[in-house]
């Protein structure tokens, strides 16, 4: 029976039902339920005329309205689209900077942002995650003699403080290893997840050594151990002598097993979250952008190390065919360093953080990316410089032309710039 037929039947039988006695009502009700397939209690409400439209949905009034969703959305974009659990941990630290940028929030609105749960954050941000998604090879062979000087590290890290770091490089080659281009040198601390990045040209041994020197000078703690892969940019005498033959304490230098990326899982994760999500997979082969690239990394490293919380895996156990993972509470790398740092280091870190503003850093990152893409969109000079060891081929020229026509834009650049 169609809805229209049910409606007509109801209008015809309702007066008869309401005039009838108890026994007659029972017969009418049974026949009505048989014809319409309605539940008996529902049919009683219909025949008595009590069924109607609700003025509002059942349940309590929503606590988190559109005002909370709008402020949460803007804060989510400022924090580079963190997941709900990390965003919940970041909100107390970010609200002061957010109010300085966007204006003071109402007391009740501010309190609701502080009290909101990760599950509620997911519900409020669900439509925004759909409309604003986050964007979202190298084979050098070092000699066998130097390999014997660098031990292989296996098994999980067991450290109680910062200074034990993994290092890796990321190629900005645009899908072709031909010619010269930039690489990103990434170092990640195991205990605090403090990550530092530097751009190097062609990943030569001296370039990588210079990048490691520059990164070490910016670290808020001493470099105690360095674990690398088996590439020739790391396994060489220049880096070995720099780490071992120094006046202060020597750095414990190890390497991973060949073709085992999980041996360096911490820095491999940062290759995606810190490098690829910022610069994408484009080819960066214009040497004029080196200074701007390193300026970009200075802003991005400060932004993530001081203001973006992260979680560390505490325990993992196998239950049947699945793994159950347990993580610690979200904290920023700076907070993890402060927990074990000495008094001078704590004072220095706090003074450094007081001079930073995450929203200003975010804007500086956007501006640096604009400058980089503006420079890389210009035609490449015919002479690639004295470091070129191969001549340009017609295939490479075709690759360059295709890349200029189909330029991938960084996900940060594709986001709506917050006014």
Distinctive features:
419 residues; alpha/beta; Nucleotidyltransferase, domain 5; 6-stranded mixed sheet; two-stranded antiparallel ribbon; disordered C terminus
Descriptive overview:
The protein is an alpha/beta fold. It is 51% helix and 11% strand. It is built from 17 helices and 8 strands. The strands form 2 sheets. The chain has a 6-stranded mixed sheet with strand order 1-6-5-2-3-4, with helices on both faces. Strands 7-8 form a two-stranded antiparallel ribbon. Helix 1 runs antiparallel to helix 2 (22-36), helix 2 packs across helix 3 (40-48) and helix 12 runs antiparallel to helix 15 (358-376). The longest helix has 19 residues, at 84-102. The protein starts with a helix and ends in a 5-residue tail after the last helix. Mean pLDDT is 83; it is low at 136-140 and 378-419.
β-strand percent reads 5-15%
CATH architecture of the largest domain: 2-Layer Sandwich
Global mean pLDDT: 83
Distance between the termini: 56 Å
Structural class: alpha/beta
Ranges where pLDDT stays below 50 over 5 or more residues in a row are 136-140, 378-419
Q: What is the CATH fold-level name of the largest domain?
A: Nucleotidyltransferase, domain 5
Neighbour order of strands in the largest sheet: 1-6-5-2-3-4
Largest sheet: 6 strands, mixed
The strand count comes to 8
Q: So what's the overall shape?
A: elongated
The CATH H-level superfamily of the largest domain is Ribonuclease H-like superfamily/Ribonuclease H
CATH class of the largest domain: Alpha Beta
What is the tally of helical segments?
17
Number of domains: 3
Radius of gyration: 31 Å
Question: SSE string, helix = H, strand = E?
Answer: HHHHHHHHEEEEHEHEHHEEHHHHH
- The percent range for helix content is 40-55%
